[in-house]
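Page header: ASSEMBLY MODEL / two components / 583 residues total.
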Amino acid sequence: MIVADHLNKHFKIYETKKGLMGSMTSLFSAKHQVVKAVNEISFKIEEGEFVGYIGPNGAGKSTTIKMLSGILHPTAGYVEVGGVSPQKRRKEVAKKIGIVFGQRTQLWWDLPLRDSFDILKEMYKVPDAKYQHFLKLYDDMLQIGNFMNTPVRKLSLGQRMRGDLAAAMIHDPDVLFLDEPTIGLDVNAKTSIRSFLKEMNEKEKKTILLTTHDMDDIEQLCSRVIVINHGQIVLDGTLTELRKNIGLPSVMEVQYRTKPEIGDMVMDGIEKMRWEEEKLVLQYDRSVLSSPSLLQEVTKWGEPIDIQMKEPDIEEVIRKIY
Amino acid sequence: MHLYLKLLSGSLRSRMQYKMNFLISSLSYALIMAVDFILLAAILQRFDDVKGWNLYEVGLLYGISSVAITLYRVFGVEIHNFERYMVEGEFDSLLIRPVSPLSLLLTKNLDLSRIGGTLQGVIILIISIIGLHEKSVDTFFLILYLPVSILSGVVICFSLGLLTATIAFWTQRIKDFQTFTLYAPFNAANYPMNIYPGWLKLIFFTVIPVGFMNYTPVLFLLNKGGDLWNLLLPPAVAFVFLFIAYRFWQFGIRHYHSTGS
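Prediction written out in full:
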């Protein structure tokens, strides 16, 4: 469904100065740096796969997605989506894909949400019956009906993102590119979006490529994970393989009233333990040790006054791969 | 076609959400244009004629040029704002749709507050034609040709705007450069080309061909020289220029950099 073959995107970074002379000189200036945002990336994604595409900021995730969707032209290498090159036949590919950028809405900002759907229906030439069917389906799953007549700029982030998702899929695309769709959302909105995506993948057999900084997204949704760093693939495998490689370290921070007595017998699954000021910081592998059982354990050591759970961040995960 | 009307009506409705802003900007543009015109009239009153062109004849050039550029400002407002699409990576949104990014760009916004300028240009044209008529100049073919001249002017203006905007695919920033390729030349085209030194005239008839839109045809229509070719050249130049601009634009899109997210 999606093919990337020795894909490269290099950017020349010029010093851009302001003003007329600035733009003139930067146009002809030879002073530049070449940044390899994407460097020899190859992968193949089959129909119906749900792939997590992860890596630290600036690793090249968005650049890859932009090449797959035809926004950017690769410096070298080849891309194919549904058997078609998005660089050669961009409009054709545009009809097969749906794109959501978490950081930037694709909806018509000042118009009621309904109008965005209306315009998109026209743009993608969605037949009436099909349009009504999908609008109803997405409303059932994402509950967008309540704010259909609200201007997009007045929607909450969670509402807007649900609207964005539905809008990206109103033409029933085979492939979905999601660039951090859960960024900044609260737990409820995340849950609603996750279950929607899961269903779209399982029932409608949509092929989905998702970038995220949230390890929960990956764990709950993705059957396969591609990790990139500095523009190169460092791991491409199943979630189980990722786990085997790095575990999925969760973090628990416990503050005790008095200094706890920690037994010599450290539980299986606790990977690291250290003191950070007054807090005991525990890193543990959730696939081996569940959070409730760890909670039980730490209360045995002393009297906790505060317990905080933290999710591992991608940067931590990447560091572990090396 | 239906889609484009829909997109345009959407943009208009978005604009109307900010009514106060719309009123204020319409008013201030109208004021600027009025002051501009009063200045021109004052100068012409004083000098009577400019290198053999009287007030009404210059008014004709002025009218064509200002109607052309203000019409462009109404429809091409997002080309004028193109820098934003580069610097903020907003161009992404135009490239993910199964429609040409240029038509999406053009339907993104309409700047109706510039209509006042167009109206003012039309009034100047009417005054000038009446003035010429009273001096018993034959204005029949002149009036007939005006739409061609204005349309060629709009197309030349649009092509210049597009060519300049395309440079932003490489430089990101372009706003200052637009003044240089668009506004200065169109201001210059308010006056007869023969007042400019040779090198400047050369520019206005080659790389920035604003001379063709009004000076070339009016020269012939007012019996100041030239032949029938002067009437064919404006649309021909406009068409060729549009073609070049569009090809350059398509070439530029391949070099779009986007921004990091």
